[in-house]
Amino acid sequence: MTVVTVSPKFQVVIPKGVREKLRLKPGQRLHAFVYDGRIELMPVETAASLRGFAAGMDTRLDRDDDRL
Predict the structure, then answer these.
(1) What angle do CA 21, 49, 57 make, to 5 degrees?
(2) Is the four-CA dihedral 47, 52, 53, 55 of positive or negative sign?
(3) CA 22, 13, 45: angle at the middle one, nearest 5?
(4) CA-to-CA distance for 10 and 27, rounded, in angstroms?
(5) In this structure, what is the dihedral angle of CA atoms 17, 37, 47, 21, given to the nearest 10 degrees?
(6) Hey, how many other C-beta atoms are within 10 angstroms of the C-beta on 8?
(7) Domain extents for the chain?
């Protein structure tokens, strides 16, 4: 586990090993939130990167099941 320090401006540097594993790029946006008493950072997914993530999924609705 790597330790980082919070600067007087409340900034932290993401360690190189973590940046490389997540393939983070300069200027990339991250979601920051508190979860179970800790800070979590998640890369913001662009719409283009999500294209095709549901390939092969049947999105048709069988409307007869919810009608009386």
Answers:
(1) 115
(2) positive
(3) 35
(4) 18
(5) 10
(6) 5
(7) 19-46
15-51 pLDDT tens trace: 999 999 999 999 999 999 999 999 999 988 776 666 6
Residue 29 near residue 44, CB atoms below 8 Å? yes
For residue 12, which amino acid is it? Answer: V
Helix ranges (H only) for 1-68 are 16-22, 47-50
Q: Are 2 and 17 in contact (CB under 8 A)?
A: yes
Q: Retrieve residue 36's tokens.
A: 């179970």
Task: Retrieve residue 40's tokens.
Answer: 């979590």
What pTM does this model have? Answer: 0.60
